[in-house]
Write a structure and sequence with these properties.
The protein is an alpha+beta fold and 389 residues long. The chain is built from 8 helices and 21 strands. It has a 7-stranded mixed sheet with strand order 8-7-16-17-18-15-19. Strands 10-2-1-14-21-20 form a 6-stranded mixed sheet, with helices on one face. Strands 5-9-6 form a 3-stranded antiparallel sheet. Strand 20 and strand 21 form a beta hairpin. Helix 1 packs parallel to helix 3 and helix 1 runs parallel beside helix 8.
């Protein structure tokens, strides 16, 4: 698409609502701003509003605590640990943040870890691979939340309304004025109007998208329900500066950063303080449980889950009385992993043409961060095609 294909006037530029301030929403707003500004210069600004139910932008999540004695932090990337950039267009998109070192490749040493059934024996640790710059895994520094916040800060023509929960859409919220000016009025959960919009883009996880669209007669509602997502429990552990570390973390023959755990309810273990630009952290370990196990126990009491995960972590890491973690936390992600269709095809964005509603999200693709970008790109292409048709 050339710049000349999207010339608009102040009167014709669409008013766009994005439900969800995760990476799909942020990427969508970023690409929309770019395409409208490139086509129109500064004479016309896009009118974009993001509605986010939490207090900050999402998906890349970081939790930390400060040690009052050392004034150093424990820190856990308890959501996505890293992401890849396999397509040329996504590589080009992230290039500025790589150049600024906000995004950095993580060349982790990866092992397979088999927990020991015998408390007197250490886990069996075998080298698996090293992540390399040829197929880099990227992290955001100094926190995984840093990139999301940078994306939000760099938006010039987008308003982000935090702590705003959009009420489920209803078919009567769509006001058909004439063929060229159809709008949807959004409301918050208390019934207050959030304004009327030419385009409404829902970027919530599919379970939440179903709830938002259930009574709207959205024509692609059945497809939203087809996508399946699984939960993930995350265990966060930390050790004091002078405290001995568990045996598996002191493995002298093999320094490792990431462990794939075998024969366990645990999936992977990540050593936070060994990541790039993280060496000032106190010992901090993030552990993801298996998605299938997490889904089976998604509604269980979180304290009961924490006990089970701690028992599995102790078996994997092998701590003794003097190396019990001093920091313990647990988080449940209800929508964490997208189950791939048997034919490995993507849904792509789902569009209700007459009402100009779009349902998007990483679950419409491969369920990863690059899918957030690809779905955002599809959304922008759809809006642009409508503008010039």
């Amino acid at each position: 698409m050339t710049d000349s294909t999207l010339h608009t006037t102040e009167q014709s530029i669409p008013k766009i609502a994005i439900i969800g301030g995760g990476l799909t929403g942020l990427f969508t707003a970023t690409l929309l701003e770019r395409i409208f500004i490139e086509a129109n210069g500064k004479s016309v600004s896009p009118k974009i509003t993001i509605f986010e139910k939490s207090r900050s932008v999402g998906r890349l999540a970081t939790r930390y605590r400060m040690d009052s004695a050392t004034h150093k932090n424990w820190q856990w990337a308890f959501g996505a640990q890293f992401f890849t950039a396999k397509s040329a267009d996504f590589q080009q998109f992230i290039k500025p943040w790589i150049q600024s070192k906000l995004l950095q490749p993580w060349c982790a040493n990866v092992v397979d870890l088999i927990p020991s059934d015998d408390a007197a024996q250490n886990a069996d640790i075998q080298a698996k691979e090293q992540w390399s710059s040829t197929q880099a895994r990227y992290i955001s520094t100094p926190k995984m939340t840093s990139w999301g916040r940078a994306l939000a800060d760099e938006l010039k023509h987008t308003t982000i309304n935090f702590k705003t929960r959009v009420a489920p859409l209803r078919k009567e919220d769509f006001v058909e004025q004439n063929e060229a000016n159809n709008k949807t009025e959004l409301f918050d959960e208390n019934g207050n109007s959030l304004g009327s919009y030419d385009w409404v883009i829902c970027t919530a996880p599919n379970g939440q998208a179903v709830e938002l669209m259930a009574d709207s007669n959205f024509k692609e509602l059945a497809k939203i329900s087809e996508a399946q997502m699984q939960a993930c429990y995350t265990l966060m552990l930390g050790w004091d500066k002078e405290q001995p570390l568990p045996e598996s973390l002191k493995h002298q023959e093999m320094v490792w950063d990431v462990a794939y755990v075998q024969d366990s309810i645990l999936d992977r273990i990540f050593i936070e303080q060994q990541k790039p630009a993280h060496d000032e952290l106190l010992p901090s370990i993030t552990i993801h449980a298996r998605n299938d196990w997490s889904e089976q126990h998604v509604d269980a009491d979180i304290d009961t889950i924490k006990v089970q995960l701690l028992a599995a972590a102790k078996q994997a890491l092998g701590w003794k009385a003097d190396s019990i973690p001093s920091q313990i936390d647990c988080h449940r992600w209800r929508y964490a992993a997208t189950l791939k269709p048997l034919d490995n095809t993507d849904f792509g964005i789902l569009v209700d043409e007459p009402r100009q509603w779009i349902v998007s999200g990483d679950w419409c693709g491969q369920g990863n961060i690059e899918s957030c970008y690809q779905m955002a790109k599809q959304t922008v292409a759809k809006i642009c095609a409508d503008q010039i048709s």
